[in-house]
């Protein structure tokens, strides 16, 4: 299958015959659906691609806490506050599983943070938009976590064992996140006209950025063909975007909302919706660091790192002291 795939930048994915024996054996294992584990041989490109994707995914989870964390103190009831707090804590947990998965590939946590703080590593474009109202928290759960689930369910079958296993746990929690978002919106659309208008406004602002989460269109996606040949990705960006639209439009209708896309139309023949193109100029601008909240998000992460220096120093000092005590005890016992 992969032998016929053509990379979008014009370079072809190499066939089995063109590979060195070690690489061929690796590809055959991937094709047979076997999982690759940390200590096993893997092509350098496979390792680098996984480090890039998993670390960017981890950064997204951690940065993704910021727009929602902003609303913990302002959630309308104690129950909503407790639910949102639990969700934001879950995101921290997702980041930690993913950083651990990336570490198995030979990169340290400090290196990954350094790449985030220096702007070298990306994180999801979606978190560079502001959360202006409580309806935005509902919209994030419904749309952003909904898009995340659509993207992450296939990643549970990723060929790299630690990533695939991290995704199984994460996907379970994401389902709860999506329901809490939809539940916020269900309550609000049954509220006052002002509350319903707030929900429509949130959908208007989050719809297109949510579609952009799936990445550039297939002809502009530089990594998809190779990542699919390695079974890191199972689907192309456009395939998942289409599935997301097909799943989400009926949910918007159920809420009594209008999806802000004049091109949106059911296509009986393809059994899915036709829809407009996201503004790709805006997408590339956001991932280049120039979105509405990029600077604010990155500064918050850098500040958190600097503020945590005393704690890291304390942990290191404690670990050194404990090692000294162990060494002294060993000598005394000899
Ligand atoms: N934002 O060749 P392509 C969450 C970059 S967290 C920023 O298609 P690929 C959640 C891409 O990295 C959601 N950058 O790449 C958390 C590449 O640049 P580099 C995060 C993007 O990797 C808290 C370039 O564009 N989910 O759900 O084959 C609360 C070309 O793209 C984006 C994941 O990370 C973007 N949206 O496909 C709530 C899932 N899209 O790296 C929710 C795992 C593309 O060469 N990641 N770029 O500099 C993936 O599945 C894939 O990496 C992507 C992109 C589909 C995102």
Q: What does the model show?
A:
This protein has a two-stranded antiparallel sheet with strand order 1-2. Helices cover 65% and strands 2% of the residues. The termini are far apart. The longest helix has 29 residues, at 161-189. It is globular and about 80 Å long. The protein is built from 13 helices and 2 strands, in the order H-H-H-H-H-H-H-H-H-H-E-E-H-H-H. The protein is mainly α and 334 residues long. Helix 2 packs antiparallel against helix 4, helix 6 runs antiparallel to helix 7 and helix 6 packs across helix 10 (237-254). It binds benzoyl coenzyme A. Residues 52-53, 56-57, 60-61, 64, 91, 122, 124-125, 144-145, 148, 151, 212-216, 221-224, 227, 233, 237, 287 line the site of benzoyl coenzyme A.
Q: Estimate percent helicity.
A: 55-70%
Oligomer: single chain
Indicate the proportion of strand residues. under 5%
H and E string: HHHHHHHHHHEEHHH
Task: Please give the alpha-carbon distance between the first and last residues.
Answer: 62 Å
Sheet/helix structural class: mainly alpha
Biggest sheet character:
2 strands, antiparallel
Give Rg in angstroms: 22 Å
Tell me the strand order in the biggest sheet: 1-2
Summed over residues and divided by their number, the pLDDT gives a mean of 95
**Count of β-strands:** 2
Q: Figure out the total of helices.
A: 13
Distinct small-molecule ligands in the complex: benzoyl coenzyme A
Unreliable segments (pLDDT under 50, ≥5 consecutive)? 1-10
Approximate shape:
globular
């Amino acid at each position: 299958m992969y032998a016929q795939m053509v990379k979008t930048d014009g370079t072809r994915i190499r066939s089995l015959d063109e590979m060195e024996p070690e690489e061929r054996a690796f590809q055959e294992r991937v094709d047979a659906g076997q999982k690759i584990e940390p200590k096993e041989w893997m092509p350098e490109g496979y390792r680098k691609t996984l480090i890039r994707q998993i670390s960017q995914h981890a950064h997204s989870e951690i940065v993704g806490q910021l727009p929602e964390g902003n609303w913990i103190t302002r959630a309308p009831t104690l129950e909503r506050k407790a639910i949102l707090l639990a969700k934001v804590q879950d995101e921290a947990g997702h980041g930690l599983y993913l950083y651990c998965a990336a570490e198995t590939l030979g990169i340290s946590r400090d290196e990954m943070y350094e790449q985030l703080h220096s702007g070298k590593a990306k994180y999801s474009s979606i978190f560079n938009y502001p959360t202006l109202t409580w309806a935005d928290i509902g919209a994030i759960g419904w749309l952003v976590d909904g898009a995340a689930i659509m993207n992450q369910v296939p990643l549970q079958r990723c060929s790299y064992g630690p990533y695939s296993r991290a995704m199984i746990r994460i996907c379970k929690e994401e389902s709860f996140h999506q329901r809490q978002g939809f539940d916020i919106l269900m309550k609000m659309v049954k509220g006052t006209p002002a509350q319903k208008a707030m929900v429509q406004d949130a959908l208007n602002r989050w719809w297109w950025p949510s579609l952009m989460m799936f990445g550039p269109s297939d002809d502009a996606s530089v990594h998809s063909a190779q990542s699919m040949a390695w079974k890191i990705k199972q689907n192309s960006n456009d395939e998942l975007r289409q599935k997301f639209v097909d799943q989400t439009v009926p949910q918007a209708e159920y809420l009594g909302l209008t999806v802000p896309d004049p091109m949106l139309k059911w296509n009986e023949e393809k059994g899915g919706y036709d829809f407009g193109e996201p503004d790709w100029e805006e997408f590339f601008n956001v991932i280049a660091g120039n979105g509405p909240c990029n600077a604010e998000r990155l500064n918050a992460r850098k500040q958190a790192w600097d503020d945590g220096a005393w704690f890291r120093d304390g942990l290191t000092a404690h670990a050194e002291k404990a090692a000294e005590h162990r060494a002294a005890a060993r000598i005394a016992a000899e």
